[in-house]
Amino acid sequence: MMAWNVIILLATFVAFASASPHNFGSYAVNNSKGYQDAAKLLLSGIDFTIDPCVDFYQFSCNTFLKNATIPPGATRIGTYDQSQQLVNSQIATAIGKLDNTASLTEKITAHGYNSCMQAFNAPPSDLSSKLNTLLLSQIGGLPMITVGWTDMSWDNFWQTVGKYESQYGVGSIFSSYVSVDYGHTQQHALYINQGALEMPRDYYVKMENLAQMDAYLSSLVSLVQLFNSNLGGTVSNADIQQMVTDTVQLEVKLALAMVPDELLRNYEQQYNLYTLSNLQSAYPNIGWTKYIQGALADVDPNFQQDHYVVVQPAYFAAVDSMIGGKRVTQKQLANFVGLRMLLSYSEFIGGDARKLSRQIRKFEQPKRTRRVINFYDEASQSCVDYMMGLMPYGPGYIYVKNIPNRDQVVADVARQTTLVIDAFLNMTHTLKWLDDFSAQNVLNKNKQLIKNIGWPWWFSFSSSTYIDNKYHKYYKGILDIDVGDYFNMTLALTKAYQQTENFGLLETKPDREDFLDSPAVVNAWYIPERNSITFPFAAFNPPYYRFDFPQAFNYAGQGGTAGHELTHGYDDEGVQFGPGGELSDCTWERCGWMDKNSTLGFINMAQCVVSQFSEQCCPLKTGNVHCVNGANTQGENIADLGGQQAAYKAYRKYIDVDRNGIEEDRLPGLEDYTPNQIFWMTYGYSWCMLQQEDNLVHQLLTNPHSPGMCRVNQVFQDIPEFAKDFKCKQGQPLYPKDDQRCHVWTDAPL
Questions:
Q1: What's the predicted TM-score (pTM) here?
Q2: Cβ-proximal residues to 709 (8 Å cutoff; 6+ apart), any chain
């Protein structure tokens, strides 16, 4: 593994000290480029007419919100999105400069990217016949437009359902995936998961979403009618409308059978081990042998493992009952499966299909086994994102390779992360409800925490042998596909992705240092079953970090991210997993390494956050917009609260230790604001986002993260250090009385 901690750099301090700051009274203003750029970013959001103690989100973001424009093809624009767009642009530029000395990985990435660019910039091609012949023919064609369609054997049907998942990335009745075995973390397991809906479950089961369902149905009918016309079909538009309606009604039934997200936070209830024989006995109307054969079609035939994890038994019981009770026919199921395939590859239908597909997939349900590829009207953005979704480490390798000071940045972030972790552990020492036994378990878990920073250990920028020949071995055939054959390019990339990042993992031992996504993604994550935090290199950009920015900015942004992800290891889900990622101390009803009294204290802490976010309606209810669901978002809200407090304390430690107590210089144009205030302003700015109403509604229904306005105001009201730094008066909205705020992961007095 890369030795992140071999050097502790104080280069930022040296750079700032040499920037010839001007003295203004008792403090200095630094006019270096880094300080100027940091100031410009914050000033692009700030509205000085807003009292920061009343509404800090509006104070930090009003100017950004007034001036921002949502790009064509998008439904939101935030400072986070702008950062990803910048990274994508850098990758596109680097691809354009590749020559014959490029590595195999770079050449494959460029080949796929160029194929996408050609297709994007050309008039939409009608490949309906190819789509029908190569893909839909495996279920005998799409039944609703195939005259004379007849049932196939159930064995063939179930094998095709599995094959659609493993070779084409299309989930339908099921949406299985491979991950670390929660009970035996030295091996992977196949997790047999409930079905794949096109939209989040709430859209199907709640009456207030009828308008969205009507729009979905209308676009779906138009898409099938276009496909039928392209094939020269004879089925009438009226018949298609009826059969699509019937299929969506089946989709609603499947949605009703699914377990909602808020009930999927107890991993003991999700970890249900079955052998093949057990599956056949429990759900006899499902063809398990053939389904698993299809799902593992590209796994080594010599691989032997007869245990599977069923994530939601109630869902499979419902599907089994529907089939056994003759309440659903094979034709109805095949229509549902076929529509899932058609939607996944609808860009190849031609005509208005791209527009219709965008309307349908606007609120696509996030998938575990394949990144949802974003829609951009700009070709290079779209095509970088396309490659990021299907070959994550190709664009990631190109991106990191082209950053000259990458090692300095990683060393700086590693030092920062160490201080944040130390600060969080010190916070836990103040907790009255955490007894010695549970406190020791916190320390034990932290000792085994894996810190993935920047890029995977197997990235080498002097030799590409490993990434070319081992990691990307399934991608080598990509170069044999004609750059103009975007259809087969997409199929080949999808299959290689499934072999490398999903079903093919069954043949390998889990690697806790696996990043699980591209280093070119502006994001970060904690994985409980690996006990790892991961910070891709692309996250080290504004609005979170820049090497020459003041550390008040960097600790608030990237440091806050580090604290956030670290805190996930100790949220309502994280406490269920032990130091090595295994489910810990499981009883018949739950898992967790806290003792009974500490667990009660933790539950009370979490419930305070749940109640606060549910009762203090944020965002304000208007039209279809409703309040955040405190239960759904509790893990992320707890992480925001714990993480930002840890980052602040880490920043103050940095000032005391790394700068010998000398405060940082002030920002030009923001001379009246202390470094501590800049810390809070940076966090506020990082969540500025302009959203269309339907995007906000979608987030509230599906996303475990609260909207930006809530992540700022509702977090800061629980952090008294914020109120102290801005000299708020107790009783103002962001400085409530002590008994009116939640104490998250600290009981220390101010």
A1: 0.92
A2: 57, 618, 619, 687
